[in-house]
Write a structure and sequence with these properties.
The chain is α+β, with helices and mostly antiparallel strands. The chain is built from six helices and eight strands, in the order βααβαββαβαββαβ. It has helices at residues 14-25, 31-39, 68-86, 123-137, 152-160, 191-210; strands spanning 2-8, 43-52, 93-103, 106-114, 142-147, 164-169, 180-185, 213-216. It has an eight-stranded mixed sheet with strand order 6-7-5-4-3-2-1-8, sandwiched between helices. β4 (106-114), α4 (123-137) and β5 (142-147) form a beta-alpha-beta unit. α4 (123-137) runs antiparallel to α6.
């Protein structure tokens, strides 16, 4: 089983965050940039960490003997010790990163990144769900972001959450010269949007299970 943990970014994961940023965006923010985000009260940075649990080791069954009870007790102690060792998980891997800025009543989503080896498994949708859920908890009314018109995978995710196009920023992306589509999602404090988040998370569960992923908050 692969275990996922969704939590705030801390200084401990800064190096991994910069590496993921470089891998996904070619270096959008530097380490000092992420440090400033951590210090900003208006910035929320979430990470998605994954770890693979080590498989349990099989303890040999003691052979019957005239000291059977003693052997069984020794075997039981050995099994308990083995279980305590093999329950230690492997080192975590940073699979995803998301950020939004609180600006007046708006959540400006600035980063949504998933490790290339872990895409197409629902993790981007999970991160967006978590960012929007936190935005509602911060009493924000609207969410906005920029996206490349060519990024159809991202556009599909945003539209599922009710984002609509509100404008363009011409020649916004320096790497490709593409425009940026400006997307908006209003009504974050409405019961309808709360139901949308709940339903979407429930729909995402089978997809995570299909990829043998288990989430903890």
């Amino acid at each position: 089983m692969n275990f996922l943990e969704l939590k705030p970014l801390t200084a401990k994961q800064l190096t991994a965050a910069v590496e993921l940023d470089h891998l996904c965006f070619g270096g959008l923010w530097t380490k000092s940039g992420y440090e400033r985000e951590l210090d900003s009260p208006n910035s929320q940075l979430l990470i998605l960490e994954g770890r693979k649990q080590n498989p349990p080791l099989t303890t040999p069954t003691p052979n019957p003997s005239k000291e059977g009870n003693r052997s069984r007790m020794a075997g039981r102690r050995e099994k308990d010790l083995t279980s305590s060792i093999t329950s230690v998980p492997a080192s975590p891997l940073l699979l995803g990163l998301g950020c939004f800025w609180s600006i007046l009543e708006e959540a400006h989503i600035t980063i949504l990144a998933v490790h290339p080896d872990w895409r197409h498994q629902g993790l981007g949708q999970l991160l967006l769900y978590a960012l929007l859920r936190n935005a509602t908890k911060c009493q924000l009314e609207r969410a906005t972001l920029e996206v490349k018109p060519s990024n159809q995978a991202a556009l599909s995710i945003y539209r599922k959450f009710g984002f609509i196009e509100a404008g363009r920023r011409r020649n916004y992306y320096q790497d490709t010269g593409e425009d940026a589509l400006i997307l908006w999602r209003s009504g974050l404090q409405t019961p309808e949007f709360t139901a949308t988040l709940t339903n979407f998370y429930q729909q995402l569960q089978p997809r995570l299970a299909h990829w043998n992923l288990q989430l903890s908050f």
